[in-house]
Amino acid sequence: MKTINKILCSAGLVAMAAGVASCDLTQPTPSAFDESVVFSNPSLAEYNIFGIYQCLGETNCHRGRYLPWYGFNTDIECYLSTNFDGKNLDWAAYDCSPTNSNMNLDNGPYSKIMEGLERANVCVKYLRHYGKSDEMKPLLGEALVARAFLYTELIKGYGEVPARFEPVSTDTQYINKADRDDLYEQLLSDLEEAIELLDGVYPTRTDRVGKVFAEGLYARLALMASGSSLRPEPGTTGTGNAGVIGYSDRENLSKAALYPKILEYLTDAIESGSNSLYDNYEQLWKDFNNMDLEGGKEVIFSIPFSDSRGRWNYTFAVRKDEGLAAPWCNTTASRAGAVGPTPHMFYKYSKYDQRRDVSVVNWKWDEQLHKVPAGQMNWYFGKFRFEWMKKVPYTGGNDDGIKPVYMRYSDILLMAAEVANELDGPEAALEYFLEVRNRAFKGHLEHAVEGLNLTTKEGMFQAIKDERALEFVGEMLRKQDLIRWGELSSGINAAKEEIVKFARLEGAYDSHGPALWYNFDGENITMYGMEKGEICDETTFVGVDGWELASKEYFKDNDSMTKRVASLVKEGFDPDHHMWWPIPATVITNAQGSLKNDYGY
């Protein structure tokens, strides 16, 4: 099969929808071939499916607006600026204005995802009509999954959006938002069909859709549908309703109805043997940064950017300060480190957990390309590193070519554990949970379940929630997890309390510091004062070769702590009532009165 990366530029050669205007409208263009020819020919139909994903690489869609801005602030991930500027931090800290200049764009994420959905609708319509052969069935399955994926992204960002499951016509140019439950019902039905159509399809590349991804996406979407969220009151969608926190009142979207189906699909994905965990967590992320797209390993699906598109490491990698260029980061400008773990996240891990020093780091590259301590409140995602980009080294521009991970096999396992625990109790969940946990503690299995209550349903659920934080920090899954658990505001408030204790070395944080010493040997940095029990002062390593004092009171920066806590949520705003982004004002204006934001926007 040809790859998405090679085909996007050629998508216009066959019947595709034209660009979407900001009013959520696509006008079809004349086809280079008749639809009956295009969608009965496997190669031509496949080109059209590749074109569905083109929207993701557009300048202001996933490339530069959606991915760099979705998923924080939460209890484990935060935007690292503390300066409210009416644009960046405001958006991250739940002051999501419809006129925010980052998102109030004709070609922003909302409009571009709608463009991708129009292309998907074209593919689904004509593949159903003309793609009757067995060879064409997987292509219809992929088109259905691609449409469900794009709609999942819209719902995650905006909550309620219009329901478009047919190509735009004169009668449907301007429509209001739909009840989100209507979308869930249609998308879950589509994914059930797609799973059958994709039976036996296990892609050799992670930028292609197969059965396991369809099953995992069904699970993720069904957990959203059956979970808690902010919703307009019944019958008020698109009227400006303030909304209430609650669950769907539709029986077919309840946990009782959906959880058995979720577990059935996840069990099938697991038993297929098509994917497995890496033994070494660090190697997983070295391969990710090195753009390994080989299917059948831990990564199930990656965002299909080209090698010269996307701003993932540019945004999320360990920070490089302005200064010397390097072979692996060929720029003198400062790069990355815009977002990182919340400052206390390091201490959620056991010191025996191999994920800790990969996921959460407190160092950066300075102007001389030395690794130095980054400051008590500045932590970075160690999963994402320029120096691990070997195959396609980062040249310093605005795009790095990294293909962000959208779903991993560990997510399949932990979703299965969560659902099995709810249905049948902790014994049913234990095998799935321990597969993830034991990988993390490989070489130290005697410590894998220390301090965990895995014998009660409540204890197992708490362990699963904590494990998802440890496993996926920096992958921007947490916000939607907290939303569906009904814990967005409460989770962030609990994190604020922990950050204060951490900054004051109180409670669980009273057995290290307050000084921090470090030793950089030209390759690795070693810190003393970071681990619990490492008590030191400004005299501890005086006269010891290679050791430098970062600060005699590194862990008592109360000014930075105050700013970090204040920057998680802008004063006067409540994440529970601003969990969804507003549809941009320019889209509302151009929709000819058909669209209206809810939730006080």
Your description of this structure?
The chain is mainly alpha-helical. Helices cover 38% and strands 8% of the residues. The chain has helices at residues 4-7, 35-38, 42-52, 62-66, 88-92, 109-130, 137-158, 180-197, 211-226, 255-271, 281-289, 312-316, 356-359, 409-424, 426-440, 457-472, 478-485, 488-504, 558-568, 585-590; strands at residues 77-79, 229-231, 244-246, 299-302, 339-341, 360-361, 363-365, 371-373, 380-381, 405-408, 513-514, 516-520, 525-528, 535-536, 547-551. The chain has a three-stranded antiparallel beta sheet, with no helix packed on it. A two-stranded antiparallel sheet has the order 1-5. α7 packs antiparallel against α8 (180-197) and α15 (426-440) runs parallel beside α16 (457-472). The protein is globular. The two termini are 45 Å apart. Mean pLDDT is 94; it is low at 1-31.
Labels describing this entry:
38% helix, disordered N terminus, three-stranded antiparallel β-sheet, single chain, mainly alpha
